[in-house]
Amino acid sequence: MQNKLIFLVILSTLAVLTACGGPSPQDIQATIEAGMAATKAAEAAKATEFARQIFATQTSEAATVIAQAPTPTSTPTHTPTPKATDTPTSTATPANTATPTDTSTPEATATPKNTATPANTPTPLPPTATPTSAYNWVQVADSSADFPGPIQDRKWWYLWSEGRRNFFWQDMQEMPNSCYKSPNEMKIEICRDTMTFDPHGDGTLQWKAQEGGTYLFEWQAEDEQALQFWQHLDYKGSSGPGPELPYSFIAENVTQWELFFWVPTQNTTYRVKVHKKVQ
Prior knowledge:
Layout: H1 2-19, H2 25-68, E1 131-132, E2 137-142, E3 156-162, E4 170-171, E5 173-174, E6 180-181, E7 189-190, E8 194-196, E9 201-208, E10 213-220, E11 227-231, E12 234-235, E13 247-254, E14 259-264, E15 268-269, E16 271-277
Antiparallel strand pairs: 1-2, 2-16, 3-4, 3-9, 5-6, 6-7, 7-8, 8-15, 9-14, 10-13, 10-16, 11-12, 11-14
C-alpha cells in the first residue's frame, strides 16, 4: 500500500512540474531517485517493524515456555513401593526339619547274645564218632582218637618221602614212644598230636576213603599254612572254618579208596577229623 502512495506522489510531482513548463531531465532523475529512496525507506521500515513484531512474539512465547517449564526440585522423585511379591510372606519352617521324636536305641546296636567261642579257636570235642546233626554229617575218623589203632582196623597211615613234594611215600617206623619216624637220619616224625618237620623230606598223615560219597574234612594246626591239605595229587587248602576245627574242606564225588594227605611245612600241633554226609 505504501509503495502505491509513493508512486502517486511521484506522479503528482511530475504533473506539477509539467504544468509549470515541463520538467528537465535532471528534475525527472531527481524525482525518480527520491521515489526509489522513499520506497526503500518504506520497505526498510516495514521490515524493521516486521522483525520487531517477530522478536516480540518469540520473546513472549519463550517466556511462556519458561514459565510453564517444571522446576527440577519442585516435583519429588518417584520411588516405587516394592510389590507384595518382592518379599516372601511365608516364614514357616519346612516340615522335614522337625526334630525326630523317636530316640530309641536301634536294634542293630544291641549286644549279640551269642558269646560262644569263635570257630577258629574251638575247644576240641571228645574223640568219639558221633553224628554232627547241625551239619548232617557223621564223623568217621579222628586222628587223635584213632591213633595209632590196630593194623587191621587202621584208618590213618604215617608216611615219609626223601625229598620235597615228590610224593614217593614210604611207611614210617613205629617207635617205642608210640610215634612214627622216618628210618634214617632225618627227623621226620608224627605223634598223636604233633608233627616234626625236616627240610630234606616230607612227612604226611594219610587217610583213605573206604566208601565213595561226600566228605567233610576239618583240621587244626599252628596256622593254615603249617599243615597243607591235598586230595591225592591236588593241593586244596582250607575253604573256611569247620564245625569244630578252624580249617575245613568239603570233597564231593569221592571214590572208594581215594587218598587224602596232610603235609606239615613246619613243626606243629595238629588234629584231623573226617565226616561223611548222610542221606
